[in-house]
Write a structure and sequence with these properties.
Blueprint lengths: L3 H14 L4 H8 L3 H8 L10 H7 L4 H5 L4 H14 L5
Helix pairs in contact: 2-3
């Protein structure tokens, strides 16, 4: 999982690439512009409970923002390992 700083840097990068202003991001996430500014200044921790809102606003996924593997990929790995086990395992 990304650190707070990495998440903010990635969000800032996506905003620049998509030409989304701080005000527009605040509007899309239904948050105060001042709160978003504090995240961008890294004076406050990114609110993980709002990652879905930010992902939707930036047209990406929460998994991408946080750099976590979706459960389906993990389950595929588990099933692959499980199928290689011999009884009684």
């Amino acid at each position: 999982m990304r650190t707070n700083s990495e998440i903010i840097d990635l969000i800032r990068k996506i905003c620049v690439e998509k030409d989304i202003s701080l005000s527009e991001l605040a509007r899309r996430t239904d948050m105060a512009k001042s709160a978003i500014s504090r995240y961008f200044n890294k004076s406050r921790q990114f609110p993980l409970n709002r990652v879905n809102d930010f992902a939707k606003a930036l047209n990406t996924t929460p998994e991408y923002l946080l750099d976590v593997t979706p459960n389906s990929i993990v389950l595929d790995d588990i099933n692959t390992i499980y199928s290689q086990l011999e009884p009684p395992r």
